Amino acid sequence: MGRYRYSAAVLVMFTFLFIAIVQGAYAMGGIGWNFILASPMEGVVVNNGEPVEGAVVKRTLHWKESSFEDAVVTTSAGVFALPERTTKALLWKFLPHEPVIKQKIHIEFEGKTYLAWRYTKHDYEMNGEREGRPLNLLCEIQAETRSHDITEDFTYYGMCTLR
Question: Could you report the per-residue pLDDT of 1-55, keeping only the tens digit for each?
Fold first, then answer.
């Protein structure tokens, strides 16, 4: 009986050691599955049809209790490119759930802020926002901020149009 008690103690010790190693590797980004929170997005910002240089394009993402933010500045041609945004998660790969990733993009130009894109993504797929097609926007500063249909079931809100 003493031998089994010793084996159980060793098993418990190795279990705690394994959990500590896995948590440490996860915390350093070494393990886990990549979840795509936002697909790469390209676009052009124009004002009355003319390219807008130097506008700040800010993206904010909310997933679970986490928030992510990044920003880029438009080129002389009004072009911007936001990279794919991913995060690592260990258990979410196996737990049944519906992804809810809130995406917002604002454009700051001449002291004003414009809502370019507001969308709630419900998957972790590349270009899942548009059923597999790349995200390419035309953002006219003078355009009305309104709802746009992506499909019959999915819409986004903002001043930009998909190209």
Answer: 555 566 666 665 665 445 444 444 444 445 678 999 999 999 999 999 999 999 9
Phi, psi dihedrals of residue 63, rounded to the nearest 5°: -140, 125
Encoded amino acid at 55, one letter:
A
CA 135 – CA 41 distance, rounded (Å): 5
CB 126 within 8 A of CB 106: no
85-89 and 79-82 as β-strands: parallel, antiparallel, unpaired?
unpaired
Q: Which of 60, 159, 155 is nearest to 109 (CA)?
A: 159
Give the pLDDT mean for 118-134.
Answer: 95
Please report the sign of the dihedral spanned by the C-alpha atoms of residue 83, residue 88, residue 89, residue 93. Answer: positive
Q: Where are the alpha helices (DSSP H) in 42-134?
A: none
Segment 42-99, tens digit of pLDDT: 999 999 999 999 999 999 999 999 999 999 999 999 999 999 999 988 776 778 889 9
CA Rg, the chain, in Å? 22
Q: Are strands 101-109 and 41-47 parallel, antiparallel or unpaired?
A: unpaired
Cβ–Cβ < 8 Å for 37, 87? yes
Q: What is the pTM of this model?
A: 0.79
